């Protein structure tokens, strides 16, 4: 699976300079780091996110993330799983309660290296580190009942694409990631 991800990243067409630079570093780290899919790698490890859109692709599902105190996309740590699409789908189900979801493509939708500031989790300090994040485009029905995951989020809500950007209180993520995801979504149509 690791070699497959390396090949997918090599073939991935970077959307902008951020993706180009992040792609190079991700490939390098995949080749060098044996524990890159585990949180035991305290400085950097893989995560998978989902940009969850409705059938018309004019709304995005976001969770009010307790740790970041912000509206955010859904996703989580690879925790040893090298099939990142599987991680993204699993995280959407766990964080939203949605069961009728589908990847609009098995291909990577976006890549980004994200800085995670030091924080407390379950009573222990987690040092600042990097998430080597791969994002997939996932479709869900906005009529399906949502269920919050209380240990991670306190609310779930469908937003228009622009409202989803504005809802985030993380300026860099809002302007450089969520705006990029929406722009990429419009290029699919």
UniProtKB/TrEMBL annotation:
It comes from the Bacteria. InterPro entries: NUDIX_hydrolase-like_dom_sf, NUDIX_hydrolase_dom. This is NUDIX hydrolase. Residues 43-181 form the Nudix hydrolase domain. One of its GO terms (molecular function) is hydrolase activity. Belongs to the Nudix hydrolase family. It holds the Pfam family NUDIX. The keyword Hydrolase applies. Keywords: Hydrolase. SUPFAM superfamilies: Nudix.
């Amino acid at each position: 699976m690791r070699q497959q991800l390396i090949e997918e990243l090599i073939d991935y067409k970077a959307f902008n300079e951020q993706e180009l630079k992040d792609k190079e570093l991700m490939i390098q780290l995949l080749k060098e780091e044996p524990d890159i899919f585990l949180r035991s790698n305290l400085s950097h490890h893989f995560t998978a996110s989902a940009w969850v859109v409705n059938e018309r692709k004019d709304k995005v599902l976001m969770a009010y993330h307790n740790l970041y105190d912000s509206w955010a996309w859904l996703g989580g740590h690879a925790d040893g799983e090298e099939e990142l699409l599987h991680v993204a789908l699993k995280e959407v189900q766990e964080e939203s309660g949605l069961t009728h979801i589908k990847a609009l493509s098995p291909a990577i939708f976006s890549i980004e290296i994200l800085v995670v500031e030091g924080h407390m989790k379950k009573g222990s300090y987690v040092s600042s580190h990097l998430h080597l994040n791969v994002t997939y485009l996932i479709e869900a029905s906005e009529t399906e009942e949502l269920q919050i995951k209380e240990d991670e989020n306190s609310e779930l809500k469908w937003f228009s694409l622009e409202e989803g950007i504005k809802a985030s209180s993380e300026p860099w993520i809002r302007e450089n990631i969520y705006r990029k995801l929406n722009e990429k979504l419009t290029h699919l149509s």
